[in-house]
Amino acid sequence: MQHRAELQAALHTIRLRSPDPLAMARFYSRAYGMSLEPLEGGYACRGPQRQVQIVGGPAHQLGFAEFALHDDAAWQAFRERARGLKTEAVPDVDGEAIGWRDPDGNLVVFSPPRQPGDAGLASSLPPATLQHFALRTPNLPDMLDFYTRQVGLVLSDAVRDPEGQLRACFLRSDHLHHALALFFAPVACFDHQSFEAPDWAAMKTWGDHMAGLREPIVWGLGRHGPGNDVFFMVRDPDGNLAEISAEIEHCESDRPAGEWPHEERTLNLWGKAILRS
Question: Which segments constitute the VOC domain (predicted)?
Fold first, then answer.
């Protein structure tokens, strides 16, 4: 069996919509150790290897997700992949970029390699890299087809119910287990973004930081089945989940896609889970 190579890209920026962009930006700046700066229509929060933008709009909706290719060769290969396909204008992303809208209308953007720049607010907190995000969708098979066939993400694991229906899938853009998770749900919306910490000690520091801010952990500490990462989650002012995780699985390019049963233990090997459907 021939396996498709990963794109060699990593999540760079998440833009969320919110009816109260300032409250959301203040939360992400405070909770995740990022600067807070105005941008057209909203705010940008930046820290080392993490950027979240908030603009006006309905809650629980993605403005866009931007991936940066790892190197020039990967970017040229991606441009070749996109040749002849209908793309979306991406005026809110600096420099050259290629954008597509998925079957639910979410905008996903790919950009050339990004040079390290100003990391934003100086922070004593441990590293936490913006690593993946998740969407809820009533159109899971179509979304999976779009993100694998057109975009080029690779399926790491799928979750199926006893009747064989697809309930979740985890897709990677490089060697890390997933850069995007898709969950079957009655309504299409944003689910969460995750910041990857380097180790257990950093997880503890981040947990203590949330406690100091009186931001309650609403799920975790736990360990996901797909990805094998340890995690905890809080909620932002709009009710979106926001995750800190560590130890995510590193995948070989020829790793076959796995399958998991649709049950709580799949989403949390250690206990309770949030099931989206």
Answer: 10-113, 129-247
Residues 67, 12: contact at Cβ < 8 Å? yes
CA gap 162, 260 in Å, rounded: 10
Q: 221: cis peptide before it, omega within 30°? A: yes
1-28 per-position pLDDT tens digit: 334 589 999 999 999 999 999 999 999 9
Pick the CATH number of 9-111 from 2.60.120.400, 3.40.50.2000, 3.40.50.1580, 3.10.180.10: 3.10.180.10
Residues 133 and 156: their CA atoms lie apart, in Å, by 15
- Summarised one tens digit per residue, pLDDT across range 95-119 is 899 999 999 999 999 999 987 555 5
262, 277, 263, 254: which is closest to 186 by C-alpha? 277
